[in-house]
Give the backbone structure.
Amino acid sequence: MDYSDIQTIEHDILVVGAGGAGIRAAIECAQQGLSTGIISKSLLGKAHTVMAEGGIAASLGNVDSRDNWKIHFRDTMRGGKFLNQWRMAELHAKQAPDRVRELEEWGAVFDRTDNGLINQRNFGGHRYPRLAHVGDRTGLEIIRTLQDFCIHQGISTHMECTGLDIVLDDGRVAGLLAYWRETGRFVLFKTKAIIMATGGGGKAWKVTSNSWEYTGDGLGMAYRAGAELIDMEFTQFHPTGMVWPPSVKGILVTEGVRGDGGILLNSEGTRFMFNYIPEKFASETADSEEEAARWLAGDKEARRPPELLTRDVVARSIKKEVEAGRGSPNGGAFLDIASRRSAEFIKHKLPSMYHQFKELAEIDITVEPMEVGPTLHYFMGGIRVNSDNQQTNTPGLFACGECAGGMHGANRLGGNSLSDLLVFGKLAGDGAIQYVNSLMTELICKNEDISKIIKKATAILKSDEGENPYLVHEELQNIMQNHVGIVRTEEELQSGLNKLDKIKSDINNVFAHASAQYNPGWNEALDLKNLIIISEAVTRAAILRQESRGAHTRIDFEGEQKEGLDYNIIVKQTDKGMLAEKIKRETPPKELKDIAYASLEELEG
Ligand SMILES: Cc1cc2nc3c(=O)[nH]c(=O)nc-3n(C[C@H](O)[C@H](O)[C@H](O)COP(=O)(O)OP(=O)(O)OC[C@H]3O[C@@H](n4cnc5c(N)ncnc54)[C@H](O)[C@@H]3O)c2cc1C
């Protein structure tokens, strides 16, 4: 095959993914004068980022002046159970305020305080009101602003274009083969560097807040190109997804509901979170309803209510209540804001939640409680990168946003993803620019490499028998939901791994016999190649971590083990297949360690 027949587009830097991370990275590259292209599986503005509700975390100190980067850093490390990459958490806490202000300069209109500053709301795990927000539609405002700004920077956007695989030249990035979803035609992007910004992979589970696009493509492509994945065992189950009706099970109910005063009740009407306060957080959490009520009324001496403990803690607590027979009728818990706030307040601060429940469940949340339960929400793990420039171990390949790992450790705090996208999107742009400017060799995309990718993809179209890709996807989701869920055991994980191994051959045997044009079965079949990689990576890493930490709960290894802090788990491709192994964590600089373990009094002000 001669690839001169294939449409070819050239850019200095190609960004894969048009969410907050990808667009921010592309802006950086374009502003430095490099030819920058951005491709996205769906339309510009439709990425996951648009779905973000509650807000973006940054220690602006607008609502409580005691806040500062050190406390944000401390909260992030504690939330991540100290497994975060220290340098990433430091850069994130230090740079988030500038990225938020920059967004404002570019036109984002955040909610305001009475004296005209950017308003900030409370969220789980954040000591102070820290989330800049626009009602519960923050992601929409962020993506709108970035999108409006980016189209004036000379960036070429290629929409409904799905990346299939990276093309390497002697181990370095030389291009990316993609296809147009509308026509099914292939397109080769020749490029000196790729910034992966494809988001997570929630679609490997049955109950998830993620949309159809989140099939772990960036992780799959990077893995096949030799990059390592890190922290894959840490998959976040958000405590509050809708549980009823079945057709909407998993759709997110923002943590903003609890941040604005919502409480969790079991079927007996008990506010059960008071029974699940971990020792580590006890000194900073209210121990009575009376104290929690004072906190809500604005008493700065009162401690935060237990509903605002980190997501891993709240999700497990709901699961325990259900298992004890105290769940709501549809297997969750009740989330009540109606008894705490006026209807006017709820409609103003949580308009999307109001409409979501009204439209989808015929429930008026200003009057009745919502029914909620855990839903797979976010990948803490992802492509392993250098903390300062986001470069992977594959030369020319960078990653940022949810598809990159390391920043959030064992558990992400709400609001820390949107700030992560902007901070590390910019740094990935800087890193890629530096790499491209120092590149001396000419890069070649070899015919044989391109034809290999094309042959694999088109085999699915040519075959007229095999497995149905939709049914295989369903089977994979059942395996992950039942074997690699919110609580795990060696036996369950191992059995899950065996089942994944079995469906690998089904995945290699899927067929979508038809033309490549408008062929969603083919699109689904191609996504499966990435879904199986992330599923296996999560399962292998989860088997290897024999302790319970953050979002990873092993009931056969209860509690955190001291040595669990000494390593991260990486996953990589070898000649013998996928390998998960422990790597030693670096010793943090003393200054950072002191901050992470300091008392609040030492850091305030
Ligand atoms: C309902 C919901 C509410 C949330 N609320 C908050 C919140 O309040 N605060 C917070 O901090 N976080 C929140 N999050 C998390 C946060 O929104 C995401 O983690 C974040 O937006 C991810 O951004 P990203 O730029 O990494 O990727 P995304 O925004 O997920 O964008 C990924 C992009 O990659 C593209 N893509 C994927 N695969 C391919 C491929 N093969 N080829 C080409 N393009 C591809 C997609 O089309 C898309 O353009 C929420 C998440 C959800 C689901």
Remarks:
- The CA atoms of residues 233 and 542 lie 5 Å apart.
- The mean pLDDT is 96.
- The radius of gyration is 23 Å.
